Fold this sequence. Notes:
By secondary structure, the protein is mainly alpha-helical. It has seven helices and four strands. The strands form two sheets. It has a two-stranded antiparallel sheet with strand order 1-2. A two-stranded antiparallel ribbon has the order 3-4. The chain is globular, with a radius of gyration of 16 Å.
Amino acid sequence: MSTDEPIKSPIRSADPRYGGFSRFELELEFVQCLANPWYLNHLATLKLFDDACFVAYLDYLQYFAKSEYTRFLTYPGPTLKALQLLQQPAFRQDILSPETVARLIEQGLKASIYEPSVTNGAVSS
């Protein structure tokens, strides 16, 4: 795929709409929220991670790890890492701890400080 080609949206005009948004748009917005450790903590306090259907939904969202979907993520690293961690029952329990949340935030800040940023396909420091 050439970098000059426009990114094709997976949204088709015939797709059903939910409040004016496609299912893909809603799933994209939700999955990106998972990059926020405090949001993960909030979901855990609501006991959503104890719900087998919700855990299955998180597994379903793994499709965002495919390159054709990853490109729509604003923060693919933290988002995909969160999806990966949420597959582990121990992590779903550990995220209840404020210490775990703080550790994830610290790791994210270190990554953003020490890793080169990528802007418009060009790496800058």
